[in-house]
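Could someone model pyridoxal-5'-phosphate with this protein?
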Amino acid sequence: MTDNLTFDQLEACLARQPRARLAHLPTPLEAMPNLCAQTDAAALYVKRDDCTGLAFGGNKVRQLEFYFGQAQAEGADTVLITGAVQSNFVRLAAASANHLGMACHIQLEERVPKSEPTYRASGNVLLDRLLGATLHSYPDGEDEAGADARIREIADEIKRAGKRPYVIPLAPGHAPYGALGYVDAALETARQAEAMGIAIDEVVVASGSGHTHAGLLFGLRALGVPARVSGICVRRDAATQRQRIATRCREIAELLEIDNPVAEADVQLSDAALAPGYGRLNPATLDAIGEAARHEGLLLDPVYSGKVMAGLLSRARDGGKDRSLLFVHTGGTPALFAYEPELTKAFSQAAE
Ligand SMILES: *Cc1c(COP(=O)(O)O)cnc(C)c1O
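Reply:
Sure, complex below.
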């Protein structure tokens, strides 16, 4: 057993890491009473990380604070990043670079088999263009190592042109700087819950690259907060993702130079809302997006937070009565406009 850290001790650990300030923090922690009334839960809360401030916000702003901290520490003037066509991460990397006076190159991977004009031009793609990032494309969407290798080639070209590039890597095997943003979010949430006098039994969060899930889980366990952390798979099946999260937690421990407080049994994942795959809608996700909008005025996205809400509602209805659950809203709302045809079809019927 490792000793729990106090709030101040964990804060001191994080303060040793280079960090650029980008997010509006703390984000609100709010109750969702109307949605709760539709379930068997005692209380439903939402952590509003869609409200991190920069360029429509979202979870990547917290992660980017630590990547840009590294980039600045290395004296970089250009940041490179790879992601899906409708990636929120690349949109926010472009905004962060602009905010900090740096250049940004974005590589967009063909991860989702969608050819509609809205998917290719609206939502995050429109914002990438507006932010003035240099766009590149990569033909394969399930080749993390290949996409990382290609972005490194672009970085080498930029270097030969006299610039100082910094690559934000996505594949495992790199120091998980992004996860530090969510260790910090765990600390922020634990402090808020204590100040509000609420106990949270379960946190429900997206599990994609795993920085958000692993960071939150690590931070909560490091503080001795016993809440179950349920990762909702948005990209890979639960078995594959379980390995990834366990590895990320070990990497966070190395980076922060503290013992890993996360046990194997702490890594909880569900892939029930994933089908038919990354970035593709299913009926439960459309229902969840509709319920959050109608009962709470809360806007969710089709790729991530809608699937996580489907997971939250399922846990709040079948996971046992009288528990209190926290939904982590990771943002992504610009993608709503990229999925306009499917959403119009689903919600115009509901309204008639
Ligand atoms: C990237 C992203 C996620 C997943 O976060 P990871 O840290 O990659 O697991 C969830 N929600 C939104 C809106 C995102 O952009």
